[in-house]
Amino acid sequence: MSQAEGGRPDAPDSASRAYTDFTRSLSYGEYLKIDTLLSAHQPLTQAHDEHLFISVHHVSEVWLGLIVQELKAAVALLASGVTDTPLKMLSRVVRAQEQMTNAWEVLKTMTPADYLQFRDSFGQASGFQSAQYRMMEFLLGNRNPALLRPFEHRPDLHGPLHAALHAPSIYDLTLRLLPGHGLPLPPEVLERDLSQPYTRHPAVLAAWLSVYRDPQRYWDLYELAEKLIDVEDNFRRWRFNHLTTVERTIGFKSGSGGTSGAGYLRRALETVLFPELWEVRTNL
Ligand code: HEM
Q: Closest ligand 1 atom to the C-alpha of 100?
């Protein structure tokens, strides 16, 4: 900054110094492919609120993309026994989840009447068919082979989801670290059928009890466990806000994806990803 500008960051002529010739260098819009990004915004009706509806779905998918990327990186590191770097990735996941949850505040400004103006246009489309959401759930350990079915017509989506369903989740990998810390676990935990939902096991609870009773001794496991709790806590918040938004928008009508709607989403709220990490608190 020059003295002529008096050290003020908002000096009147500062914008005139900005680069303006992009015939030979990459501009903001070209780097970020903004035209491509915005071209995905294609309302099917003239309804004012369809713009909002599409925008909130799009930003949620962008955050999901980041969450999936961070979870995959954390999973790869945990698989090789690294426990510190994944904490940074999970912290970022937690922040991105908060952004997704905040998005409901914007969507909540849409009333049921606003929604009905464009509801019929998108037929059977539903977030139930979100590949990135399912990838996030599979990485976190919410396993259910039936959830792959909506992707059978898209091998490019089905393949990676199928692989993730059969690979260890972030919790499976965390549990595999315990024996190396002198906390043995039985084969039915360490060699379980990964495509099925994880079920709680008393030996896992006992191991986490040891960790939570002596955090200094098992600091890396303790920190990782608390970060997983942060992730599940935020996941629940997103789910709860989704359910509430759904109830205030469509009441108890069935969902566009074919489920019972609010009833289905309420049951999903009962899912527990890391059961022993919640249970351990009761036993301390
Ligand atoms: C007013 C707006 C919305 C309504 C009325 C709505 C409604 C529903 C309903 C009823 C379901 C159950 C499945 C079905 O369709 O039968 C569902 C699932 C889902 N929705 Fe939404 N939704 C809305 C907004 C959003 C937004 C903004 C996202 C962001 C990506 C989203 C993501 C999802 C996901 C991921 C599922 C699957 C949940 C699971 O299987 O546990 N929804 N939605």
A: 29
